[in-house]
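Ops channel
N.P.: pipeline sanity check, posting one input/output pair.
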């Protein structure tokens, strides 16, 4: 069983410890970013086909489906995929894919929007993964990443404030000893590769996610890319306080206009709109 599956087993509640799902104002704000991206694709006349990596129980899958998108939702946890099917499987616009090894080779098709919500920090080489996943985006399409921790070494004060809020929240939660042991191991930099707690949120345990590297990747592959720094905390009072103080410990990134200059032809049966032979249809894929 892979570490993601071992951690995200049957019965887990993704809302617990997830500010982007549990804090209403933050959740609304992030959903609005998704909504704006989908509206933009609709205005461009692109098909509303979404690929969501690491969909979990569908906190954001549900929003994309409600916006009328066809959604391919992928996850490394079998029980999460089963729960996703149980919740939304009657919607013919959902395709749920279990990918135990987390490899993109199992994912076919092309998409106008690629989304990662609270997932990049689970992936060891997230830039290579972003590059490969973006090859499934059609020309003009978009990429949206939400809810990753910013690079701690670049934002030490915000990171410490976030940790303090986390500890205050953690005191009221179950399995306190195991949780504190994990935190102490992390603070000493002693990571246990056999322990899913140390492996599952790969970059939370290490140094956060390099938001500048994510932005720089997107700037190279999309016509425009915007970083969305924000504050998120499990503790409601800390959420309000951090927002009021304008702190940033998390980020999202939205990129539009998957680069046409770098596009490659994708061949299939049919007619293309570029004057090429009737038997050839070209769908331009974003190549990065
Ligand atoms: C923190 S959860 C987020 C779930 C959901 N997006 C949400 O916001 O509620 C991270 C999810 O990503 C999945 N995951 C991690 N790496 C993955 C990969 N390479 N491919 C597919 N899913 C992955 C995990 O199994 C887990 O369900």
């Amino acid at each position: 069983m892979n570490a993601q599956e071992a951690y995200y087993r049957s019965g887990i509640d993704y809302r617990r410890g997830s500010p982007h799902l549990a804090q209403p104002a933050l959740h609304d704000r992030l959903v609005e970013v998704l909504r704006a991206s989908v509206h933009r694709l609709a205005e461009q006349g692109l098909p509303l086909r979404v690929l969501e990596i690491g969909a979990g129980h569908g906190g954001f899958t549900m929003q994309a489906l409600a916006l009328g998108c066809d959604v391919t939702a992928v996850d490394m946890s079998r029980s999460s995929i089963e729960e996703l099917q149980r919740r939304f499987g009657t919607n013919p616009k959902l395709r749920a894919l279990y990918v135990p090894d987390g490899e993109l080779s199992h994912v076919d098709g092309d998409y106008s929007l690629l989304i990662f919500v609270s997932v990049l920090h689970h992936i060891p080489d997230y830039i290579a993964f972003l590059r490969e996943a973006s090859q499934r985006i059609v020309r003009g399409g978009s990429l949206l990443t939400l809810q990753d921790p910013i690079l701690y070494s670049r934002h030490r004060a915000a990171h410490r404030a976030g940790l303090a809020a986390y500890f205050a929240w953690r005191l009221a939660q179950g399995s306190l000893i195991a949780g504190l042991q994990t935190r102490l191991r992390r603070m000493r930099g002693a990571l246990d590769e056999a322990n899913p707690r140390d492996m599952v949120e790969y970059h939370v345990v290490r140094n956060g996610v390099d938001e500048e590297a994510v932005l720089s990747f997107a700037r190279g592959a999309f016509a425009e890319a915007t970083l969305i720094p924000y504050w998120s905390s499990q503790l409601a009072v800390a959420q309000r306080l951090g927002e009021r103080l304008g702190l940033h410990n998390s980020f999202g990134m939205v990129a539009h206009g998957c680069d046409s200059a770098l596009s490659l032809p994708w061949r299939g049966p049919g007619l293309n709109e570029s004057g090429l032979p009737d038997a050839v249809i070209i769908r331009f894929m974003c190549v990065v």
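N.P.: looks fine end to end. DSSP finds twelve helices and nine strands in the chain.
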